[in-house]
Specification:
The chain is mostly beta strands. The protein is built from no helices and 11 strands. The strands form 2 sheets. Strands 2, 4, 5, 6, 9, 10 and 11 form a 7-stranded mixed β-sheet that branches. A 4-stranded antiparallel β-sheet has the order 1-3-8-7, with no helix packed on it. Strand 9 and strand 10 form a beta hairpin.
């Protein structure tokens, strides 16, 4: 089992920045990838960014050049710059194990005011 604790969401004006963090505990030795998804009201959940155990990163086209994902031990962070109103969503941290099991945090709200 893996437990995920997210932090860093909040309200910010368009053009501003926020940093999300997600601390993993439990069976973290099984780490394969961690990432962030988001779900805006009335929309499907979408992948924002992910980072693998090898340090390979992937980003949604809509956030490339603005968001940066990083990992330090069992914590993954998402630095979000130049935020736009369309970035408003609940952001969920995910943890994927080497055998394909996945865990998702409770989510943290990010609201960007225009």
């Amino acid at each position: 089992q893996v437990q995920l604790v997210e932090s860093g969401g909040g309200l910010v004006q368009a053009g501003g920045s926020l940093r999300l963090s997600c601390a993993a505990s439990g069976s973290v030795f099984s780490f394969n990838a961690m990432g962030w998804y988001r779900q805006a009201l009335g929309k499907q959940r979408e992948l924002v960014a992910r980072i693998t155990s090898a340090g390979i990163t992937n980003y949604a086209d809509s956030v490339k050049g603005r968001f940066t994902i990083s990992r330090a031990e069992n914590t993954v962070s998402l630095q979000m710059n130049s935020l736009k109103s369309e970035d408003t969503a609940v952001y969920y941290c995910t943890f994927v194990t080497r055998i394909g099991s996945s865990y998702t945090g409770h989510g943290t709200q990010v609201t960007v005011s225009s």
